[in-house]
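Researcher: Here's the sequence for the chain we discussed earlier.
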Amino acid sequence: MKLNPDDSRSEPAAVQVRACSTALSTDRVMGDGGHRGKQQGSGERGSCAQYTWEEVQKHNRTGDQWLVIERKVYNVSEWTKRHPGGSRVLEHYIGEDATDAFTAFHPDRRYVRKFMKPLLLGELAPSEPSQDHGKNAALVKDFQSLRKQLEEQGLFRTRPLFYILYIGHILLLEVLPLVLLWQFGNGWIVTILSAVMLATAQAQAGWLQHDLGHLSVFKNSTWDHLAHKFVIGHLKGASANWWNYQHFQHHSKPNVLSKDPDLNTMEILVLGNIQPVEYGIKKLKHMPYNHQHKYFFLIGPPLLIPVFFSAHIFRTLCVRRHWVDFVWYLSYYTRFFLCYVSYYGLLGAVLLQTFVRFLESHWYVWVTQMNHIPMDIDYENHDDWLSMQLKSTCNVEQSLFNDWFTGHLNFQIEHHVFPTMPRHNYVYVAPRLRELCEKYGVQYQVKGLLEAMSDIIGSLRKSGELWLDAYLHK
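Model: Thanks. This is the structure I predict for it:
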């Protein structure tokens, strides 16, 4: 039986016992995976056991990890190693209520629950609140109600024509440079036009693989996974597994220090208001951080994709032995060089590829960082799902150009709150989400495109000044 957080305290004890007995019977059929014999500190209570939040939060170490979904207590100690979204996503919610995160990442929750049954330990005691760490129960309830309404209204369903036209314009941008080269040769004007079109195709394919990675395109997620490998592998020369591991962590705990991998700048930058002060107090000076808003232009936009991402992807493919992704990765470079070596020679084709990555990298960095770097960056505060996402991201004004240029990431708030929603529906959801935020005093921030980009530099300058002050005076 699925427990509703709102009526869990008043549900008759007999009903709860029947629910426990059913769960226990099911688990005996499914097999317990060896988990229930290792309930540390809980006694041999079985699937009908009831737990307090204090008990759940004790199990927060490697090899002993519990979390709560819809008031059910699960032992995910072994499942973290096999979790398709990566182990770190689950680990970020150990000892917490992961209901909204679970709902946000899984479009077919009935299918996923089949894998959860063997992990079930019991449920929260009736006297325990559904939310941990004093979260606003009314806000959580209203947010879950809004999501249910949006699902019933079909706003999590895709319009196929949108994506047919979208992939069509990407493929057209891939073909046009070859047509120009065939007709007019490899002069400077044709080469520059070709590079711009290829970079545009790369950026737009990046937004498309992002949709596929979030399982927001096809009704059957299997097709999302297959198409994701094709787009990110064959059209972009990257890895679906690498992207999934990095990006789902970012969504699960955005702008949370030590949990969001997007905050790992390899000590080249300090971000937010807390990290730079910590570095300053510890007298860490790996870079002249008070000048980071200047050297960002030299190492951020131009180098992220052609240097840092390229090296990280190749290393990940080899170390983690993602051979299927490696084949897709090689297919991109094979196709590219077969197409362009005949016009430019091997060295010329390498330079063209590097220039395309250079252009794409600028596009990618400014679009993806304008929503996050200027926002709140802090350690774990155990906020509810809605508040956590709104603290860490902002929107950019809607227009046809902004929608296309950013891959609808100008609706970053809607995307972070509902990551499996098809992006063409964000515009319909935004007013209703904004209304909910206003009701509970949650900041819903919208900026102009240029303002949002310039705020990256302003935020880096402020963080650098905080570092310098702490470095010199604390």
